[in-house]
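Take a record.
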Amino acid sequence: MFKFMFGFLVLATSGAFAAPSTCYDLLIRSPQRSYNCELMASSAPLGPVTLEFDADSSSGPGFNMQFFGADYKCSCDSKGNFNKPSFFTSKEFTCVRGYGGPAALATVIKGKVAGKDGSKIVKVQGLATSETAPEALIGTCALSQ
C-alpha cells in the first residue's frame, strides 16, 4: 500500500495532472486568444467589445492586451500575504495604459480568467481617469470561437 500511495504522490506532484494555474497560462496561448465582451460603462453601454491577449516581447511575467485598438501592459495579480507572497500567480489580472501629459491620465482594467481552459473572463472591471470625471466599466467576456 505504501508503494501505491508513494507512486500516486509522485504522479500528482510531477505535473501529470497539472492544469494551467495562472492567468498567463490561460490567456497566452497559440494561436493568439481573443474574447468577446459585453461591457457597461458608467456613462453608457459599450456593446460588444473584443479583448486580445499576447505575450510581451520583453522578459518577465508580463503580457499585452488590446482593447479598442489600444495597447495595455498586463500581469497576473499576486496571491498570498506580506509574509508569504506568491507573485504573478493568480488567475486574476490587471492591465494598465498610461497617457502621460500634464494630467497623467490612465486606464486600469482587471479581470479573472475562469471556465474550462480559460474560456471566459469574469469580474471585468475598469477605471479610466479623465480631465473631467472618472469613467468606470464592468462586464464579462467569453472566448471567441
Observations:
- DSSP finds two helices and ten strands in the chain.
- The chain has one domain: 19-143.
- The mean pLDDT is 80.
